Amino acid sequence: MVRFASAFLPFVAALGLALCGPPESLAQTSPQPHAAFTARGFVEPAEGVLSIGTAATGVIERIAEGAGERIHAGDELLQIDCSPLAADVKSLAAQAEAAQAADERVRNGSRPQEIAVGEANVGVARARAEEAAEALRRAQALQLGISVTQAVMLQVERDARITSAQLEDARARLDLLRSGSREEDIAEADARRDASAAAVDAARARLAQCTVRSPIDGVVLQRLASRGQFVTSAVPSVLLRIANDKALGVRTEVEPAHLNDVCVHQRASIVGGGAMAGELGASVARIAPPTVVAQTVPRQAETASAPIDVFLTLDQPPTMLHLGEEVTVRFQACP
């Protein structure tokens, strides 16, 4: 037992020294505080670059001059030749006007003049019916076979029935004129009118797509098409790139080693070259999520992290900075 205790004492002493030793190893594994660092950046539009295309199909009739051209919201950027579509709009507009007129005619019903004609026809039919009825009474007063023949009597009775039916027909036609159009006819006319109007709106919307206007004030960065070029909606393509050069920011790529040194609302200073003097204050507006890029030859499932995109907004409008200009970004420590 004494020999076992003497053999165990060195192990206990070594364990005590390891536990009571200096904390350098623990200090090395503790997280480091956020540090300031410097990165390279480029001046970019704060609202991003807008890629302009068209949903129309045709030949480019007009297009912006090219890079550097100043534009304002609502200015024409490009025009597609849509002459056949413009002709269709005119034709459909005429058909819509005809459908509108037909709908109004059905809704208004008969005109007063038409009702007056119907009343006159009733008067004529009444006079003929009264005359035929009087002739029938006279014939019936005569002695059949002596004063009037059987054939004449049958003819008089037939005329009385015909004129009576004609009077009823005239009265029914007059009632139709006075009652106006049926609800079914009105509904059909309304539907035709609405369909024609919708066809015109659809054609005008397609025609409006032939003219592309600028949504912002800014400048043309790049022209990717030329006059006379055929474009089609079946193969979407970018024709122009524009940007608002009055609202600028700075985009920089931060190395993965400084991932923990970047945070939103972090303060930074922008140092440019050329005519720019001094520094501009800025703050981190957004940080792109880090991406992992696999190595060309993977080694034990190792991966390499790609740089992180960080965009900063300026505290005041820049007067000496230009799009695409390279600057130096000095990040302060995160709060």
Describe the structure using short key phrases:
3 domains; 335 residues; alpha+beta; six-stranded antiparallel beta barrel; Elongation Factor Tu (Ef-tu), domain 3; rod-shaped; OB fold (Dihydrolipoamide Acetyltransferase, E2P)
DSSP strand count:
16
Largest sheet, in brief, is:
6 strands, antiparallel, barrel
Order of helices and strands: HHEEEEEHHHHEEEEEEEEEEE
- The average pLDDT is 84
**Ends apart, CA distance between termini:** 61 Å
Number of domains: 3
Q: What is the alpha-carbon Rg in Å? A: 47 Å
Number of helices: 6
Quaternary state reads single chain
Structural class: alpha+beta
Helix content: 40-55%
Q: Are there runs of 5+ residues with pLDDT below 50, and where?
A: 1-31, 292-298
Give the structure's gist in a few sentences.
The chain is α+β, with helices and mostly antiparallel strands and 335 residues long. It has helices at residues 2-20, 24-29, 83-108, 112-141, 150-179, 183-208; strands at 37-45, 50-52, 58-63, 70-71, 76-81, 211-213, 218-223, 230-231, 240-243, 248-254, 267-271, 279-287, 292-294, 303-305, 308-314, 326-331. α3 packs antiparallel against α6 and α4 runs antiparallel to α5 (150-179).
Describe the protein's architecture and organization.
The chain is an alpha+beta fold and 335 residues long. The protein folds into three domains: 33-47 and 246-331, Elongation Factor Tu (Ef-tu), domain 3 (Beta Barrel), CATH 2.40.30; 50-82 and 210-243, Beta Barrel (OB fold (Dihydrolipoamide Acetyltransferase, E2P)); 90-205, no CATH class. Helix content is 41%, strand content 24%. It is built from six helices and 16 strands. The protein has a six-stranded antiparallel barrel with strand order 1-10-15-12-11-16. A hairpin with an 8-residue loop joins strand 13 (292-294) and strand 14. Helix 3 (83-108) runs antiparallel to helix 6 and helix 4 (112-141) runs antiparallel to helix 5 (150-179). The radius of gyration is 47 Å and the shape is rod-shaped. It starts with a helix and ends with a strand.
